[in-house]
Amino acid sequence: MRDAPRRRRSLLALTALALLLTACSAKGDPADDPAAPEPGTLRILASSELSDMAPVLEQVRKDTGVTVRPTYTGTLDAVNLLAKGGTDGRYDAVWLSSDDYLRLRPDAAKKIVSETPIMSSPVALGVRSAALDALGWKAGQVTWAQVEQAVQDGRLTYGMTDPARSNSGFATLISVASALSGAQSALTDADVAKATPRLKEFFKGQQLTSGSSGWLASAYTRRGDVDALLNYESVLKGIPGLTVIRPTDGVVTADYPLSSLAATDAATRADVKRVTDALRTEAVQRLITARTHRRPVVASVPPAAGLDTARRRELPFPGTRSVADRLLDAYENKLRRPSRTVYVLDTSGSMQGDRLSRLKKALTDLTGDFRDREEVTLMPFGSDVKSVATHVVSPADPQTGLAAIRTDSGKLRAEGGTAVYTSLEKAYGHLGAGRDAFTSIVLMTDGENTEGDDAGDFDAFYRGLTGERRDIPVFTVLFGDSDRSELRHIAELTGGRLFDARTGSLDGAFEEIRGYQ
Asked: CA dist 3 to 6, 193, 299, 436, Å?
């Protein structure tokens, strides 16, 4: 295990703000979001994929008179907030995809006083029809070993969410590791070590990563050359053209428990129980499964049409936090494809002062999150690109690369105009093609384009790209006086995503983007 300064992506410090929206808002701690309590209103900290429950919650409001006000965040991030006491007095309940990791954290587990499953959804594999036909698979007879073999044979590629940002990604990682290690009970350190060689081969097939299921689905549809997705069954059922497979040797299932917080009073807990009871009525359970493709937990309600009813082995969650940490650390630094990112950074004259200081701090802080084997390029620009500095985080000597990034960040100076599009074009030119890595560009600017190529020139440039370079997304960051429409267009054109650092922190925006790299 790594020491504390090198402990990137520890489950203790995960940030999982994976909102299922077109643009993200970098607000940092979700404890900043909820308003003061109101009579008849429950403030619930909820896993981000539950944003699809709005119609159900409206029905619950009609049935009970209680309004649910959700704040969406990542499951693991919510657990960390609980452990730090950040929910006390700010939330009335938590509604996570799973409480499995919460149970490994006594400091978080003591914050809840009830735990009632509302619905369920297992991890599954969604495969394009053409790929399924080529593989000759029958949906009800596929094992994880067959999936692994198809990847090794070069016949299957897939996308999945980042386990450090998304509980669906973490549940998928546990499912694959358990199956390929042959574990007969909860994963142990020995199981992780045994499975690592096979897992390394398995993750060679991963072509897409994401901090959220929503963006992953969009990227999958846009690319068209990825064969499959690994995610919750409920998510996959909402994507046209996929055959959903639950491997016969077992999966991890989310059960979405609604839990009261210990810091609340009796009246608030009674409202939580009213909402819980309403969610488990037959009528609402039917609405849930029909609307969201999740499975009912009330035995008298059948799953929606199209949901496989065959029994599957339920794979257990790791029994200790150390095993969970070790598995995630192995994925981030050994198993997955490395990341390759160009940070195109506005250092024009308008960045002088506090803005530049915030940029330097954000970059310096971000070095604690870079993975082994990661390639990071800093490309500051003003009226043109000022310099290009590329550093690799070597597993043999990671501190040298990280220190170099911090040094180059400290040297940034504010001067010149704002050549956004010309600089982006040079970032694509720098990246080229041919490396087996998750490749992306991060663009941060505090103003509108004033020099060099304009939006039309960049659009023409991008349309002329081919092959791997055409698939490189640009993740844009709103900061200072930057133009939302300008940056949204760049993100949409390239298949990236817009992040807003104007209402939150620049550190938070950069950190959120990590789930997509």
From this structure: 5, 19, 48, 29
